[in-house]
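Input.
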Amino acid sequence: MNSALRLALASAVAATALAARAAADEIRYLDAATCAPVTRVVGDVVEENWLQISFRDKGGKIDRVDTRLVLDIKRAAEDAQAAAFRAALAELANGAYAEARQRFGTMGGGGRTQDPASGKIEFKPFPVEPGKAKWSTAYAMYHYALASYLEGAASKDAEKLADALRVLDASSGDEKGFLERYKEGKSRWYADAWLLKAKVLVAMGEHDKAAAAFDALYQKTITTPIGVRFSYEAKMGPGRIAEAKGDLNAAEAAYEAGASAIQSLFEQPMDPCSKRELGRWYHEARMQKARVLLAVAEKSQSAPEFGRLRTFLQQGTPDALKARFAGKPAEVVDAVMAGALSPTVQAVAQNGIGLAFLAEKKYADAIAAFTAVRVKYFSVADEVPRALHYLVKAAEAAAAGAGKPAVKALYQAQADSARQELKTTYPSSPWAKV
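Output.
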């Protein structure tokens, strides 16, 4: 081999190695022992299922991480489908459901599109690929169904809900939905798709079918380590169905039962990260009941109902939790205490406590609670507009009862600031319109 050829081959090998490094994928996941986030640059992702993600490390060796711990997977920037997926995902996160749905449909080659020949807008099944399906197919199908569901639920569009169910559940002739193609968890998104099917059925009013889907998912979480989040979501299903039916008494009872079921899972062996996550989901389950109690109290404007809400919320204070979980292993107590500090838990709790104080005309205490939601838990988009709305009411009531002009002016300034923030930052929120 002459030197020129040797040099050319060496350059080609170097270029290939450089391209491989440039085309590296990235996985973000939680460390199973510490629950701390880890970012790992890998050669490429080899396989994804609902239990494990397999990938090549930089040395070419196959390694794995449990899917339940994965936060995100980023494909190499050179992958055109990866760029398309990120763009669609950004639109989905921003609430542009129709635009995201169309992007996911284009990415996967299916969905509701306009026929170029007839001009009609019709549903086109996602094509079945020969051989091993590309990673992008599963991602596109699941997220198309998610976007279609969110769009349909927001606009009460039955067609979009039916499309979401069709993408997930079709199984006739040549048309195979997501759950049929990736049966028994052959996709990272399989458990998410199972859960989404149940939610779509709730939105469509198919309550018995939704209940069966939620229950089957919960039973699967007991035998298959797909993550405690799915145990929580499945056990919240009966409450969501009761709310959809407008039966708040049944919803309250269902959420109470769901929280008890989640609490019982602390007895199961699991890694420290899962135990910690379970602590959070236990409190999230309790907050679903708190939401119902809050809705009942708001509707009735009854002081006893607000008192019942506050009593329930006080059962989640650190002292109450220590008493309730006395005798449990230290890691269980630590998980429960940490879960109580979750922003979503605290935002609902502080709003409930604030409303109880407002009903009792304890305006300063109410203002403090609503302000905590506004300042400390600003990331909880569902609760901050509510807090601002009631902060206006509490501050205006405090201003009306203030004897000193300076104090009156201070409270009124708080009310004006909260009102302005509500209208400018959350203009589309129902709380900005009441």
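Confidence is low (pLDDT under 50) at residues 1-22.
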